[in-house]
Amino acid sequence: MPKVKKGQTEGTKGPKNKRKRTEKTRDMGTSSAQAESLSEEVPQMMAPVSLHGDAAPGAPGGLDAASIPDMCQISAIACLAHQDMALLKGLDKQDLNHSPPPDQLSNSQGLRCSVWIVGSSIVRNAGIAALSRPGGQGLGLQTKGIDIWWQGYGGLRFVDLACKLRWLAQFENPPNLIVIHCGANDIGQVKTQKLLDRVRWDLRLLASIFPNTKLVWSFLLPRVAWRYSKNVRVMEQTRNRVNRAAAKEILGCGGRLLRHTQFLGKPKQLYSRDGVHLSGLGNDIYLNNLQSK
């Protein structure tokens, strides 16, 4: 066997060792890059998620459910109207199927959520009552990244709602959520079928005007007395029909529902003397419902 010179042996082994060291260095560089990538991903995964739509139940800023008098709850449950219960049962399944869970309204980028609460004197009075509560008109949700803009107008009718929202959009950017509590003032002034058609049409229109905004329908409250008719039973039937039509449209466009079941049965302590507006306790309950939603 021919002898291999020492220089040739060292020359042959040199490149091999160099290739091994190069591959090892490359592997170490890859592992280092992966480690750096992982270190960047971990803080993002562990970053706190800020609320973007729904406030957590029990948030500060109002009365808790436990503070409502027991007699009020008993009265409300004992006097539940048959039509109201039928309406709620009919919508429960749809609400669960179409309403997004609260975490879908949150964002992980720390952006603030803008909420408009628009409606008639019920909204106006609730906004005024919120001034004297802990958390103020923000309902204590400012720390959750939620900013509320109260827009309550006494006597506002649903037929004027779309124009009002278009007007408001001239002064503020489109919000993340619009809570609508409007329509009771139309009952008795506008023919029922015409009102139902208008509710369906205008809610679809609003969904197209505010494509990136989630609409929330706040159920019209029962009334002890109605201004435009003494036939309370017929007026309540119309109110239920309006709520049913609005709820169907809202769910169809990916919106949400805000119910106020404490007012079923019309507990007297929740209403003012006129039987239309809410008492101090009624306003507190209404605000609690908004806060927990």
Automatic annotation (TrEMBL):
Entries under InterPro entries matching the protein: SGNH_hydro (IPR013830), SGNH_hydro_sf (IPR036514)
Region: Disordered, residue numbers: 1-40
Regions of compositional bias (Polar residues) in chain numbering: 28-37
Coiled-coil annotated residue ranges, if any: none
Residue span, SGNH hydrolase-type esterase domain: 118-284
Name of the protein this chain belongs to: SGNH hydrolase-type esterase domain-containing protein
Native source organism of the sequence: Magallana gigas (Pacific oyster)
Source lineage: Eukaryota, Metazoa, Spiralia, Lophotrochozoa, Mollusca
